């Protein structure tokens, strides 16, 4: 019966759970899967989440189905290992999530009115989450912000938490002033201090940049991903231009590549204006 389920193309989630169980079977399972634990699988979980985000950003909808499946498999993998230890199983995970969503949406699943502004719903959501943290003995303002988040994302979450209790700059201008101050401190560290101090000051500068992004309504992770994509696209254009004259980047120099970069930049701007190369 189990084999029938494993080979059933319409087996859905029960099929996936059975496949995971078989992969971890001590007698007949996959040696690699059996060697894994929570810590060794966690990096793959993070990687799969990023691949989901990447597919969405590229609007690669055909790929998204597979990437979501990969991410689901990570949850199934962790739940199977937890089940083997007698901690919980996948059904507990699903039920816990369902209970959380019902509790956090009393205006949908309870008797509260749906006639609330987005701001009021956000405030209610945060109040419910604060009560949940209190139930877990997480009483500090910054408790519960996951350590494993990307650093820029975690910085923004920490800053949002502090802002809720009034620890925040009043406006963007104040953050920009702090940015100038931190930049000067980094220059001073570069000129007079050692590697550890330089790293610390660089971290302070990035932290303020994350705060500036928050004040300006920008997701710093998304902004940096966009900058990475732009750099990749423009550098590829440099390679194409060099290839057209029989050269590689290693055969070129900064002046030549910088000129080609300006061409790629101009092409980007022309495309952004509709491809005509002229402003409206």
Automatic annotation (TrEMBL):
Its EC number is 3.6.1.8. GO terms for molecular function: ATP diphosphatase activity. The keyword Transport does not apply. It comes from the Bacteria. GO terms for biological process: dATP catabolic process; dGTP catabolic process; dTTP catabolic process; dUTP catabolic process; response to stress; TTP catabolic process; UTP catabolic process. Keywords: Hydrolase. Residues 36-109, 176-236 form the NTP pyrophosphohydrolase MazG-like domain. It is an enzyme of class 3 (hydrolase). It catalyses: ATP + H2O = AMP + diphosphate + H(+). Belongs to the nucleoside triphosphate pyrophosphohydrolase family. This is Nucleoside triphosphate pyrophosphohydrolase. It comes from Pseudooceanicola pacificus. The gene is mazG.
